[in-house]
C-alpha cells in the first residue's frame, strides 16, 4: 500500500513570518509511541509499504526574503529526509526515486519513502530549480501551490488578497510544468484553483494527479475536485488520491473511514478504478475515525472489500495506480534524453 501524502513535522514560520528553515530532529520517525501519526513502526504495524514524504513550505511574501527563506526550508526538509534513514531507521526504510525501487523495497519487507514537494513557492522565478530538486534529492512530485497564490499559479484557497492573480497558470508556471515533465516530477494539482488545475491538464505531457484531495459532489469544499475536473483527470490518464482529511470528506468535519470509502467509490463509478488512490495527509492535519495513524492503514483494504471491490481493484487503489503514474513520468525522462 502506498500513502501518497504525509508531512514531516516541522515548525511552520519564524517570528517574522518567513518559512522556517531550521532543522527539526527526526528521531521520532523510529518510535512506535510518538506523537506524529506516521512513523516506521506504525507503518510496519499497519502494512503500509510506501509513503510519499512532503517537504511542505507555507505560503509567505512574494519578495526576495520570502523566496530565499522558502528555498532554504525546502532543501533543509529534503536533507532531513535523506538523513533520517541512515541515522534512525537503517535496514527498515529506504529512500526511493523510482517505481521499481518502491516495489523492490516493499518486497524486501522495508518501508519505501519517496521525497516530494508541497508548494512550488520555493522555486521563486527559477524553473531550473526543478532539475536540482529531482537530481539532488529525488523529488517525484510537486504541488503547484499551497494556500495562497505564488508566482506559478493561483490557489484554491486564498487567505488574503485577490481571488485570482494569474487566471490560473502564469507563463512561469507553464514553463515550470515543462521542466517538471522533463525531469520526471509529477504535476500535483491539490491546492490549485480550478482554472490552474484544468490548464495544468492541458499543458502537461504527463498525466497530472491530485495527491490529497476529495470529491466536491460529496463535500463542497474549495480543495475538492468537481465532476468536470474528475473528467479532465480521466482524459489525461491521471489520478485523484482521496485523503483522510475530515473537512474534505464531510462538510463541517467529522469524516470517517466510511465517508472516505464513499469518496473512493464515487470516483470509481464516475471515471474508473484506475483513476483513484489513497492518501492520509498525516502530520499535516489528516486522520479520521478508522484511520487515525499509519498503524491503522490495514483497515482500508478491509473497508474497500466490504464495499464490494475485488482484489485487483483494491490493489490498484492502494498503490498500483500510483506506481503506474510514476512510471509514466519516468518514461518521459527517458524519451527526453533520447
Summarize the structure.
With 338 residues, the chain is an alpha/beta fold. The chain is built from eleven helices and nine strands. The protein is globular and about 50 Å long.
Task: Lay out the secondary structure.
Blueprint lengths: L1 E6 L32 H7 L3 E7 L7 H25 L4 E3 L3 H9 L3 E8 L10 H9 L3 E3 L27 H12 L3 E3 L5 H10 L5 E5 L13 H10 L2 E5 L2 H4 L7 H15 L4 E4 L19 H8 L4 H26 L2
Parallel strand pairs: 1-2, 2-4, 3-4, 4-5, 5-6, 7-8, 8-9
Helix pairs in contact: 6-7, 10-11
Strand count, sense and barrel status of the largest sheet are:
6 strands, parallel
Rg is 18 Å
Order of helices and strands: EHEHEHEHEHEHEHEHHEHH
CATH fold type: TIM Barrel
Unreliable stretches (pLDDT < 50, length at least 5) are none
CATH class: Alpha Beta
Please identify which CATH superfamily we are dealing with.
Answer: Metal-dependent hydrolases
- Structural class estimated from helices and strands: alpha/beta
CATH-defined architecture: Alpha-Beta Barrel
**Percent range of helical residues:** 25-40%
Description:
By secondary structure, this protein is an alpha/beta fold. The protein has one domain: Metal-dependent hydrolases (TIM Barrel, Alpha-Beta Barrel), CATH 3.20.20. It is built from eleven helices and nine strands. The strands form two sheets. Strands 1, 2, 3, 4, 5 and 6 form a six-stranded parallel β-sheet that branches. A three-stranded parallel β-sheet has the order 7-8-9. Helix 6 packs parallel to helix 7 and helix 10 packs across helix 11. The chain is globular. The protein starts with a strand and ends with a helix. The model has no long low-confidence stretch (mean pLDDT 97).
Amino acid at each position: 500500500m502506498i500513502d501518497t501524502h504525509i508531512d514531516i513535522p516541522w515548525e511552520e514560520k519564524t517570528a517574522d513570518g518567513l518559512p522556517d528553515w531550521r532543522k527539526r530532529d527526526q528521531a521520532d520517525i523510529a518510535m512506535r509511541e510518538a506523537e506524529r501519526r506516521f512513523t516506521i513502526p506504525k507503518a510496519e504495524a499497519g502494512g503500509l509499504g510506501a509513503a510519499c514524504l512532503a517537504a511542505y513550505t507555507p505560503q509567505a511574501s512574494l519578495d526576495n526574503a520570502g523566496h530565499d527563506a522558502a528555498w532554504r526550508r525546502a532543501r533543509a526538509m529534503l536533507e532531513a529526509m535523506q538523513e533520517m534513514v541512515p541515522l534512525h531507521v537503517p535496514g527498515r526504510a529506504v529512500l526511493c526515486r523510482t517505481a521499481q525501487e518502491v516495489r523492490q523495497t516493499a518486497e524486501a519487507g522495508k518501508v519505501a519513502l519517496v521525497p516530494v514537494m508541497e508548494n512550488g513557492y520555493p522555486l521563486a522565478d527559477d524553473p531550473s530549480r526543478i532539475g536540482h530538486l529531482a537530481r539532488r534529492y529525488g523529488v517525484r512530485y510537486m504541488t503547484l501551490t499551497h494556500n495562497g497564490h505564488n508566482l506559478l499559479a493561483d490557489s484554491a484557497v486564498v487567505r488574503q488578497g485577490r481571488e485570482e492573480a494569474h487566471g490560473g497558470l502564469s507563463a512561469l508556471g507553464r514553463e515550470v510544468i515543462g521542466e517538471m515533465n522533463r525531469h520526471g516530477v509529477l504535476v500535483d494539482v491539490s491546492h490549485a484553483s480550478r482554472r490552474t488545475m484544468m490548464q495544468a491538464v492541458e499543458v502537461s505531457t504527463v498525466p497530472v494527479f491530485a495527491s490529497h484531495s476529495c470529491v466536491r459532489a460529496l463535500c463542497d469544499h474549495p480543495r475538492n475536485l468537481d465532476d468536470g475536473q474528475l473528467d479532465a483527470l480521466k482524459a489525461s490518464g491521471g489520478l485523484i488520491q482521496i485523503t483522510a482529511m475530515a473537512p474534505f470528506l464531510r462538510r463541517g468535519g467529522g469524516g470517517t473511514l466510511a465517508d472516505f470509502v464513499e469518496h473512493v467509490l464515487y470516483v470509481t463509478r464516475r471515471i474508473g478504478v484506475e483513476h483513484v488512490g489513497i492518501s492520509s495527509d498525516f502530520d499535516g492535519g489528516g486522520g479520521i475515525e478508522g484511520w487515525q495513524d499509519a498503524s491503522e492503514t490495514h483497515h482500508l483494504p478491509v473497508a474497500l472489500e466490504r464495499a464490494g471491490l475485488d482484489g485487483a481493484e483494491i490493489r490498484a487503489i492502494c498503490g498500483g495506480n500510483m506506481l503506474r503514474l510514476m512510471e509514466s513520468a519516468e518514461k518521459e525522462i527517458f524519451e527526453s534524453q533520447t
